[in-house]
Amino acid sequence: MNVPNSLTMLRILLIPVYVGLLNYEQFDYALATLFIAGLTDALDGIIARVADQRTRLGEVLDPLADKLMLTTGFITLSVMHLVPLWLTILVVSRDLMLMLGAAVAHFTHTQVDISPTVLGKGTTLVQLATLVSIIFFASRRLDLATLDPLLYLMGGVTLMSGLHYLSRGYCRITSSQV
């Protein structure tokens, strides 16, 4: 367990704190927790590269921590009726599809490229911006309907990204069987 992996574990351990703060409508503290999680994400990546401490565990834990933070945020806000259920279903479905695809590839010994694409990274960025915006608006008691265009944009990008990863995986599997 090196420093980058420890920071990633800290980020995972912050998730229940973050969810609890959201549930108790402590939105400013939830935003601060999300900010701290973002700092640990940046630091673990920098340290891993600079100190040459990249590990296979880190390659799995880091994106998992990001997915858990975003997914639990959307689920929690959806339960609180601050995010439409359809959007949360879309986010969760995409992430489950990615994890299921990686698991199938692993168990069938199919070589697939699980590296994030530009569209995948962009989707994560848009999802994070949406999450932060919703929490910020809720903390200031602003009209969440103002964010509807952002929700639709995020939904569209999430859907495109999911279809892109699905297509990429399908092409890889079918080309390896030829």
Automatic annotation (TrEMBL):
User: What InterPro entries does the record point to?
Assistant: CDP-alcohol_PTase-I (IPR050324), CDP-OH_P_trans (IPR000462), CDP-OH_PTrfase_TM_dom (IPR043130), CDP_ALCOHOL_P_TRANSF_CS (IPR048254), Phosphatidylglycerol_P_synth (IPR004570)
* One GO-annotated biological process of the protein: glycerophospholipid biosynthetic process
One family name in Pfam for this protein: CDP-OH_P_transf
Which molecular function terms from Gene Ontology are attached?
CDP-diacylglycerol-glycerol-3-phosphate 3-phosphatidyltransferase activity
Does the keyword section mention Transferase? yes
Query: What's the catalysed reaction?
Result: a CDP-1,2-diacyl-sn-glycerol + sn-glycerol 3-phosphate = a 1,2-diacyl-sn-glycero-3-phospho-(1'-sn-glycero-3'-phosphate) + CMP + H(+)
Q: Where does the record place it?
A: Membrane
Q: Which UniProt keywords apply?
A: Lipid biosynthesis, Lipid metabolism, Membrane, Phospholipid biosynthesis, Phospholipid metabolism, Transferase, Transmembrane, Transmembrane helix
Pathway note: Phospholipid metabolism; phosphatidylglycerol biosynthesis; phosphatidylglycerol from CDP-diacylglycerol: step 1/2
* Origin superkingdom: Bacteria
Topology in the lipid bilayer is annotated as:
Multi-pass membrane protein
| Top-rank EC class of the record's enzyme | transferase
- Transmembrane segments in this chain: where? 7-24, 68-92, 118-138, 150-167
E.C. number, please? Answer: 2.7.8.5
Query: Which family, according to the similarity comment?
Result: Belongs to the CDP-alcohol phosphatidyltransferase class-I family.
PANTHER family for this protein: CDP-DIACYLGLYCEROL--GLYCEROL-3-PHOSPHATE 3-PHOSPHATIDYLTRANSFERASE, CDP-DIACYLGLYCEROL--GLYCEROL-3-PHOSPHATE 3-PHOSPHATIDYLTRANSFERASE-RELATED
Can you name this protein?
A: CDP-diacylglycerol--glycerol-3-phosphate 3-phosphatidyltransferase
Question: What organism does the record attribute this protein to?
Answer: Nitrospira defluvii
